[in-house]
Design a protein that fits this description.
This protein is α/β, with parallel strands linked by helices. It folds into two domains: 172 residues, Rossmann fold (3-Layer(aba) Sandwich); 93 residues, Pantoate--beta-alanine Ligase, Chain: A,domain 2, CATH 3.30.1300. Helix 6 crosses helix 7 and helix 9 runs antiparallel to helix 10. The protein is globular. Bound molecules: pantoate.
Length: 287
């Protein structure tokens, strides 16, 4: 007997095959959610699939390690590729189809159009990974247009990415609703990420300090502390725990990601990016 209650999802390698499957579902009157991923699936991705299935009849999971969002010095080659075990995990939650295109399928010979997002894409991640959101926006637009799902599920873990994707579908009139889902965390608070697999045992033990330090700072701000006064000890704590480089630990407007002008009235989000060993971790929480 199979350990999984559902069959393995079928795999579409081409945009034409994905579109044909979605067309058949539509003909049967079924609704569709999409979960864009780069694979190496963890519980956080599976929670996105579950959230999609709670809203729609069918779920497509895309698995594509997108070369356009990695700079030459980044971890594109090392990024974990685990399609076989990803398919088993997706069978466990009942995803219907995996869209796993080749780089050639997504970026064929002569491909020459790239989206350049501004607004929510400016600052934070872009200060450290200037190529990143152009690559994300271009591939997400292509994935959403290939599937034309009713909803697309994105994790709040990549909070600035979620804001950029919302802006993208609004500005380009892509007819898919973007649904943000809460970050899935390990028991000790570390946000789940495919890149956690890079951490050594010592780094993994230190990593939850990101979440703990943010929580204390957010509590202090809610209690009336000035933002910078609350962030200073959090920065020190993160560095003392073994992070070698703190790219940013800031509080921003929760929707626009602009600098906070009036902490008493604006919705706020705290965001962090920091290096531990050879791994760059990001996280964020509501304030
Ligand atoms: O968050 C990710 O995994 C990727 O940035 C995404 C949205 C799948 C685009 O490649």
């Amino acid at each position: 007997m199979s350990a999984n209650p559902h069959p393995r999802p079928s795999v579409a390698h081409s945009i034409a095959a994905l579109r044909e499957t979605v067309r058949q579902w539509r003909r049967a009157g079924e609704s569709v959610a999409m979960v864009p991923t780069m694979g190496a699936l963890h519980q956080g991705h599976l929670d996105l699939v579950r959230a999609g299935l709670a809203r729609r009849d069918r779920v497509v999971v895309s698995i594509f390690v997108n070369p356009a969002q990695f700079a030459p010095h980044e971890d594109f080659d090392a990024y974990p590729r685990t399609l076989d075990s990803d398919l088993d995990k997706l069978a466990g939650v009942g995803a219907d189809v995996v869209f796993a295109p080749s780089a050639r399928e997504m970026y064929p010979e002569g491909f020459a159009t790239r989206i350049v997002p501004e607004g929510a894409a400016l600052g934070l991640e872009t200060d450290f990974r200037p190529h990143f959101f152009g690559g994300v926006a271009t591939v997400v637009a292509k994935l959403l247009l290939a599937c034309l799902a009713d909803d697309a599920m994105f994790g709040e873990k990549d909070y600035q990415q979620l804001a950029v994707v919302r802006q993208l579908v609004r500005d380009l009139n892509i007819p898919t609703e973007i649904v943000g889902c809460p970050t899935t965390r390990e028991a000790d608070g570390l946000a789940m990420s495919s890149r956690n697999a890079y951490l050594t045992a010592a780094e993994r033990a230190a990593a939850p300090v990101l979440h703990a330090a943010m929580q204390d700072a957010a509590r202090a701000i809610r209690g009336g502390a000035m933002i910078e006064v609350a962030l200073a000890p959090a920065r020190e704590r993160i560095l003392a725990a073994g992070f070698r480089d703190l790219n940013y630990l800031v509080v921003r407007h929760a929707v626009t990601l602009a600098e906070v002008k009036d902490p008493a009235s604006e919705p706020m989000r705290m965001l962090v990016a920091a290096w531990i060993g050879k791994t760059r971790l990001i996280d964020n929480i509501a304030v």
